Automatic annotation (TrEMBL):
Region (Disordered): 1-26
Active-site feature positions: 251
Name of the protein in its database record: aldehyde dehydrogenase (NAD(+))
Cited PROSITE patterns: ALDEHYDE_DEHYDR_GLU
Pfam families with a match to the protein in the record: Aldedh (PF00171)
Family designation: Belongs to the aldehyde dehydrogenase family.
Coiled coil (UniProt feature): none
Self-association state and partner proteins as the record states: Homotetramer.
UniProt keyword Oxidoreductase present: yes
Biological source species: Microtetraspora fusca
PANTHER family attached to this UniProt entry: ALPHA-AMINOADIPIC SEMIALDEHYDE DEHYDROGENASE
Superkingdom of the organism of origin: Bacteria
Length: 501
């Protein structure tokens, strides 16, 4: 039976809007949810509602807010299988991966529930007597969070959990093609006892969201924007925020390199390249873009990689498969365009390209050997099951190739030489580096984020994300009973600088 869902603003459903249906990409004729898409005015109204609710929420003691986050984690854990099944149904992610995604929400909650007791400021010594200096973390206000659908519940939790813990209210705009998964996550958060209006979910298309965000920023009802999505859209969001003197949290795409050194464990490297290149059908921001293989082991690596891909199962995401369908029809159409970037000098492995037979949005895995530094396949993100292979002769050349596309999210090197590993870490521009591990697989307590085309240097996860959802406030308290002027009324102790032994 089709789920009927709607945006929720101030605790109330918003049943009007343009009709939209979310479908099962494994069986596109199967409708998962019907949802009305809101307009720009509705998005702006949600931000006003959040601004009203945030005042009271910020007065709730931070340790109590931490207990609410703990309740979210327990609720998600209790509903893990049902939520994972819904994710698999709606976006085609294999069930084992979907269950891991749900587990990531629990891990995030487990980490942040204690941060409610650790939103520390500092007592700072003053340069003058009878005066104390303090710093405090204060919530930013309202966070507008816009997320993609490839991780429809885990990635939103990276924003929602710390934002709410820090005393902010949130207006969350999920991907409409993952509306049912997002609505289920919203309900779990609401069941934890959040007051109405503290968390709002608005389903809208990109144009209405952008216009609504512009309205909200103009009305000063949004103080922080979080965006996960493509680099092109992230650039537009960044430009909009810049006009309103705001610094958004941008987590964008990647062209993530994996360097395979001549001393690498090739079996381990192949295993990592298989998972990061084709897991989630290559639809992760951390998916492997190009394997940069030393010339001496190139042929052996490619041979083993092709064998691994040929042995992998692709199909029904409820089964034991490497990957299922692409997320949505629009991603399938875009992926078919990427396939046109294959050039005559490339060697395409292991076999056919394009869509598989049948109803679902299933596509053959593609390895493109012989990719050159000026090829589009080397320089641009390809969101789908396609991996390029290039060669190198020296580590310096490999680092230069790894940085050439201008992204900077994730990277990987396979080597048994610690010197090579640390030289790679120093030289690569990526925000995340793996040694003898794949480009995918973030943990909930490490900073997540990229540089260059992959983001604006902001970080999610761990204590580092607190700087996205709090502002530092400084306070000085002078109890001397007189005006003491900084840098002017400071005691001067004169040294004898001419002294010599």
């Amino acid at each position: 039976m089709t789920r009927q869902i709607a945006s929720v603003i101030g605790g109330k459903n918003e049943p009007t809007g343009s009709p939209y249906t979310s479908t099962n990409p494994a069986r596109p004729s199967e409708v998962v949810a019907a949802v009305p898409l809101a307009d720009a005015a509705t998005f702006a109204r949600a931000c006003r509602s959040a601004a009203d609710a945030q005042k009271e929420w910020s007065r709730v003691p931070a340790p109590v807010r931490g207990r609410v986050i703990a309740s979210v984690g327990r609720l998600v854990e209790a509903n893990a299988e049902a939520l994972a099944r819904l994710v698999t149904e709606e976006i085609g992610k294999p069930y084992a991966e979907a269950l891991g995604e749900v587990r990531e929400i629990v891990d995030t909650c487990d980490f942040f529930l204690g941060e409610g007791r650790r939103l520390y400021g500092q007592t700072v010594p003053s340069e003058m007597p009878d005066k104390n200096l303090f710093t405090f973390r204060v919530p930013v206000g309202v966070a507008a969070v816009i997320t993609a659908g490839n991780f429809p519940v885990a990635v939103p939790s990276w924003y929602l959990v710390p934002a709410l813990l820090c005393g902010n209210a949130v207006v969350w705009k999920p991907a409409e093609y993952a509306a049912a998964s997002a609505h289920a996550l919203y309900r779990l958060f609401a069941a934890a006892g959040l007051p109405d209006g503290v968390l709002n979910v608005v389903f809208a298309d990109g144009a209405a969201t952008y216009e609504g965000l512009d309205l909200a920023l103009s009305e000063s009802t949004v103080q922080k924007v979080g965006f996960t999505g493509s680099s092109a859209v992230g650039r537009s969001v960044g430009e909009l925020c810049g006009r309103h003197l705001q610094s958004p949290c941008l987590e964008l795409g990647g062209k993530n390199p994996m360097v395979v050194m001549p001393d690498a464990d090739l079996d381990l490297a192949v295993e990592g390249a298989l998972f990061s290149g084709f897991g989630t059908a290559g639809q992760r921001c951390t998916s492997l873009g190009t394997v940069i293989v030393h010339r001496d082991v190139h042929d052996a690596f490619v041979r083993a990689y092709v064998q691994a891909v040929q042995a992998a199962k692709i199909g029904d995401p409820n089964g034991d498969v490497l990957y299922g369908p692409l997320l949505d029809r629009k991603f399938a159409e875009r992926y078919e365009e990427y396939l046109t970037w294959i050039e005559p000098h490339h060697r395409v492995l292991p076999g056919p390209t394009g869509r598989m037979e049948g109803e679902g949005l299933f596509y053959h895995p593609v390895i493109v050997d012989g990719v050159r530094p000026d090829d589009r396949l080397f320089l641009e993100e390809t969101f789908g099951p396609i991996v390029g292979v290039a060669t190198f002769d020296t580590l310096d050349e490999a680092i230069e190739l790894a940085n050439r596309p201008g992204y900077g999210l994730s990277s990987s090197i396979y080597t048994t030489d610690p010197k090579a590993a640390f030289r790679f870490r120093e030289g690569v521009s990526a925000g995340m580096v793996s040694v003898n591990n794949s480009t995918s697989g973030a943990e909930a307590h490490l900073p997540f984020g990229g540089n260059g085309k992959s983001g604006n240097g902001s970080r999610q996860s761990g204590v580092w994300v607190l700087d996205q959802f709090t502002r530092w406030q400084a306070m000085n308290w002078d109890y001397s009973g007189r005006l003491q002027k900084a840098q002017m009324d400071v005691a001067d102790i004169t040294p004898d600088l001419a002294f010599r032994l």
